[in-house]
Amino acid sequence: MPHIIEVTDLAAPELDVYARLTEAQLRNRLEPDKGVFIAESPKVIATALDAGYEPLSLLMERRHIEGDAQPILARCGGIPVYTAARETLARLTGFELTRGVLCAMRRPRLPSVEEVCARARRVAVLEGIVDHTNVGAIFRSAAALGIDAVLVTPTCCDPFYRRAVRVSMGTVFQVPWARIGEEAADWPQKGVERLHALGFRTAAMALTDDSVSIDDARLAAEPRLAIVLGTEGDGLSPRTIAACDYTVKIPMAHGVDSLNVAAASAVAFWQLRTK
């Protein structure tokens, strides 16, 4: 049975995870086994539970206890369930709870690049993408369009950030992912060499004089392909483009020269999927 606790003190230390800890503190790089992330909405929380993630506590509006959070509560055993009115929770968290339910979950040990790529034929590499909404949207497209794994570079934002998780609709728990390097110096040269050692050819999504069209038959024919996507605005770094085997463009009409990285990822994933 869940342990229902009415929130009466917004400064209570057990609520820090929802209100006062930064993303870096939640991640806890010094003690990774104590890291936490926040999942939002019953659907996303259910997806995380389905994938085997461990819930630590819940925070929700009172009305959800007997409402759409019931299936979640039934699966979470006796963990603390903090509850209050919507207005109180907004004061605590600093934002309106879109779906009325948050869950603090144990951050898992991330697999290695070699582990997530062992059987992969198509992987996405996210270079320096700092917009959490874009990261979440890319994961959702990756799950829907047959990408086997996602690799994030050291300067890319955390896919377990609350907004990224929410926008992904929980697909960050379904698509295997790993960090390709821990320090900025690990990418691009070392990272691309690592992909080559695993048998991948690399395709940089960028506009250059020698870019090939995304429907070039050579791309679809590659047995293992890593699709490299760059940050908002500047795109991929020149060093990354130079290190990759292909530079790839999406042909566009009406003088449009680029797409948002999340939109471009969906086009690339569909076109370059394994048939």
Description:
- The protein has 275 residues and is an alpha/beta fold.
- The protein has 2 domains: 104 residues, 60s Ribosomal Protein L30, Chain: A (2-Layer Sandwich), CATH 3.30.1330.30; 159 residues, Alpha/beta knot.
- The protein has 13 helices and 12 strands.
- The chain has a 7-stranded parallel sheet with strand order 8-7-6-11-9-12-10, with helices on both faces. A 5-stranded mixed sheet has the order 1-4-3-5-2.
- Strand 6, helix 8 and strand 7 form a beta-alpha-beta unit.
- The longest helix has 13 residues.
- The chain is elongated and about 65 Å long.
Order of helices and strands: EHHEHEHHEHEHEHEHEHEEHEHEH
Oligomer: single chain
CATH domain class name of the largest domain: Alpha Beta
The pLDDT mean sits at 92
CATH topology of the largest domain: Alpha/beta knot
Instruction: Tell me the strand percentage band.
Output: 15-25%
Taken together, the total number of domains comes to 2
| Helix/strand/pairing category | alpha/beta
Distance between the termini: 47 Å
Largest sheet data: 7 strands, parallel
CATH architecture annotation of the largest domain: 3-Layer(aba) Sandwich
Name the CATH superfamily classification of the largest domain. Answer: SPOUT methyltransferase, trefoil knot domain
Q: What percent of residues adopt helix (DSSP H or I)? A: 25-40%
Count of strand segments: 12
Backbone shape: elongated
Strand order of the largest sheet: 8-7-6-11-9-12-10
**Low-pLDDT regions:** none
Total number of helices: 13
As a whole number of angstroms, the C-alpha radius of gyration is: 20 Å
